[in-house]
């Protein structure tokens, strides 16, 4: 057996790989399982064998072509995944064949003013960009059909493929003992919610947090608020079934807006310190009452 149980990795190093991928051919069209070619990684790039991948609403929005600027086809979507490094390009020294990794759509070069700032991690080179469809290194695609037609990239990741090529700045190593099938959540959902509470809101111990929408991201916000020491975490959702899971994650109170004769934010008015909105746009109300609001959602198309 080879590194980490993958015996064929070194056999493909330096070669073009033929594999299967789910290819988007047009807005809203069913993804097509196709046999594609994946080129070797170039300078500061990494080629990964994808082991598990999951679907995020951002993938759905791009697949539907909600924004015309995103309608670049054919394209391989996907950004939540976990995999193993198959090979690395010139200059990559912090990863090697066999490393377990997760892709990140919001990479960091570490050198630009934004990366060096304590106020943002929106890297000038590798920040999340749903319109980017080629590699930064040379402006070309690493995917192609068997006939040589280029297949475009998505969010620096393109994980709906057995193999993918990413900029090394968009790849993070994980512990080899971590349960791989659960690690796709680190690429987006869990890290988005946890980071909103831990980094963006910087929740302080003893504070009160309201989380509107107890889906996957909302529950990750709850976990982040709990870990930061919030004394009261109010979960707000229209589905009463979310209460049990919310309590397991750390909410101390549950509110269903349908149970009140007044807007639910008025119920929370006297207690909220931080608000994370995973469904509703209540940030103007929140800010007008001296609170912090952090809105986590897929943006609508730009007019």
From TrEMBL:
Give the Alcohol dehydrogenase-like C-terminal domain ranges: 216-259
Where are its TM segments located?
A: none
Q: Which PROSITE patterns match?
A: ADH_ZINC
Q: Where is the Alcohol dehydrogenase-like N-terminal domain?
A: 43-175
Q: Which UniProt keywords apply?
A: Metal-binding, NAD, Oxidoreductase, Zinc
Is Oxidoreductase one of the keywords? yes
Task: Tell me the cofactors it needs.
Answer: Zn(2+)
**Which one of the record's GO molecular function terms can you name?**
metal ion binding
Keyword Cytoplasm on entry:
no
The record ties this protein, via PANTHER family, to:
ALCOHOL DEHYDROGENASE, ALCOHOL DEHYDROGENASE-LIKE 4
Assembly with partners or alone: Homodimer.
Similarity annotation: Belongs to the zinc-containing alcohol dehydrogenase family. Class-IV subfamily.
Would you tell me the protein name for this molecule? Alcohol dehydrogenase
């Amino acid at each position: 057996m080879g590194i980490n149980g993958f015996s064929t990795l070194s056999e493909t190093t330096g070669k073009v790989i033929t594999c299967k991928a789910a290819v988007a051919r047009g807005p809203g069209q069913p993804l097509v399982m196709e046999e594609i070619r994946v080129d070797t990684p170039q300078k500061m790039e990494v080629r990964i064998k994808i082991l598990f991948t999951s679907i995020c609403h951002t993938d759905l929005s791009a697949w539907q072509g909600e924004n015309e600027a995103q309608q670049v086809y054919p394209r391989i979507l996907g950004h939540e995944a976990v995999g193993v490094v198959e090979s690395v390009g010139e200059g990559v020294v912090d990863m090697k064949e066999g490393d377990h990794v997760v892709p990140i759509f919001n990479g960091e070069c570490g050198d630009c003013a934004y990366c060096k700032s304590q106020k943002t991690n929106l890297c000038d080179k590798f920040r999340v960009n749903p319109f980017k469809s080629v590699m930064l290194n040379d402006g070309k695609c690493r995917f192609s059909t068997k006939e040589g037609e280029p297949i475009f990239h998505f969010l620096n990741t393109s994980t709906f493929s057995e193999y993918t090529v990413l900029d090394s700045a968009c790849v993070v190593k994980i512990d080899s003992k971590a349960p791989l099938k659960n690690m796709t959540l680190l690429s987006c959902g869990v890290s988005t919610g946890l980071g909103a509470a831990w980094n963006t809101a910087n929740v302080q111990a003893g504070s009160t947090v309201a989380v509107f929408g107890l889906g996957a991201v909302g529950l990750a916000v709850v976990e982040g608020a709990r870990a930061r020491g919030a004394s009261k975490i109010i979960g707000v959702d229209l589905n009463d079934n979310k209460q049990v899971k919310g309590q397991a994650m750390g909410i101390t109170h549950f509110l269903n807006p349908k149970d009140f004769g007044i807007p639910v934010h008025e119920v929370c008015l006297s207690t909220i310190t931080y608000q994370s909105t995973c469904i509703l746009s209540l940030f103007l109300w929140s800010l007008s009452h001296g609170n912090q609001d952090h809105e986590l959602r897929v943006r609508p198309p730009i007019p």
